[in-house]
Amino acid sequence: MEKQPTYKELEKENERLRVEIRRKEERIIWLERMLFGSKRDKAPKPSSPNEPTLFDDFFEKACEERDKDIEKAKEQIEKEAQARRSRKPAKLKRPSEYRYAGLEERWHTEMPKDINPDDYDVIGKDVTRTLHRDPAKFWVECTERPILRRKTDKNAAHPKIVQASAPVPVIGGNHVGADVLAQIIIDKYEHHLPEYRQVKMLKEMGVVLPVSTVNNWVHAVADKLYPLYESLGEDIRNSDYLQIDEVPWRIADRKGKCRHGYAWQFRDARPDSHGLYFYYLKGSRGGEIPRAQLKDYRGAIQTDGYKVYDYFEKQDGVTLLGCMAHIRRKFVEAERACPGVASKAIEYIGLLYTQEENLRERKAPYEEVSKARKEKGLPIMDAMEAWMKVASTTTTPSDLLGKALDYAYKLWPRMRNYALDGRYHLDNNDVERGQRPSVMGRKNYLFSHDDKGAEDNAVFYSLLESCDVVQLNPLDWLTDVLGRLRDNMDEDEIMQLLPYQYKKSRE
User: Fold this and answer.
1) Mind listing the pLDDT tens digit for each residue in 80-121?
2) Numbered ranges of CATH 3.30.420 in the chain
3) What residues pair up with 279 in beta bridges, in sequence order?
4) Which class would CATH give 218-322+430-505?
5) C-alpha angle 211/214/220, rounded to 5°?
């Protein structure tokens, strides 16, 4: 006869099944969001105040005392935020002509038909502005170089013959102007147009080129810019405050399929940023990459929770910072799956971001920012930490809330470091924003054919995105630099062509 389970065994099995059901429900909600919902990290609307949740009793009691401690800070932050929002001026509608400021204006007067203008006096006028464009125009520069013989040597056995030097090509063996090359690069890496689409557009404008030729030009320009790229990397690594992240890139060097590779992005996060630097080495995401790039580094490093960054926590002279946006993202996922479980965490984090917005709005000095974070920000983080300790008793490590708590606990000591220096950010969103062009490009040209193509991408994204960081027109910069770069330039000459120094020299 089969032994009947005891009451405790049944109770334990029921608890296991409840956890399993909850886990599967969370998974279903997450999958539905990924398929049909918004990918934004917007927190769901809070539940009705009259609608109880499973965790109300636990959390309310745990947070009550802590909330009293930070009530004054919370009141001050929200009061300042309300005043800040009320100061924002209403958006004014601008006249249509403001949209075309700086453009050439071609005027003409349109008189009514079938009248003699001499019979009328002008008593007023209306102006209609219509936007037009001249189509892009290519032209060929033909440089004629006469071969000259000195007149006095007409009958000489060895007459003196001279000729002007041939124009030096921008890229070896190809007589194509820097302006054309720059536009091709900008269209691919800033406007995300694959080379085959550009070839089609060029054909419509009367220039017939094979895709292979354009591809060779792109590779040649990358090689020409490589000394600049290396100098930029060295310049970025010398910053005392870096944000780091990994960017997924697809490499189609295997028959019939792509492999997933990664590029590493290093952003100078100082207020006076010099730009950012992408580094690619065979698609590796291993920790040897940042360790080699940042050997003997001294300063602050801000990252997400990827485990390879743990190495820097043990290095002398390195301050490791976390990213609150990544922490919040995981609590938002838990809140979507089970409303009410993570709303308190999202509220605490929202209060921290409100404080940062207040300080940024009034352009507070960095010393004041650091002081405000210590006086108000850290107590809020202490309150959130107390909440997390209680919340951890109500969940399992495999639940979305459990995963969010585990992730937050790991980064919490790093998060508190943001109060050490007013220059530090609460998150590393700046470095993630630097990934957007590469992500958009990947959606259009899909992949790189090999590691060399991926390395070229790193060169272009580094330099062009650095132009955007320092607010420099990338097309103008690239056109000028391609025409000025030459072999055997010394380090100082190359440094002067980097986007940050280039703009500084023209201010």
Assistant:
1) 878 777 776 656 555 555 566 678 888 888 888 888 888 888
2) 218-322+430-505
3) 264
4) alpha beta
5) 140
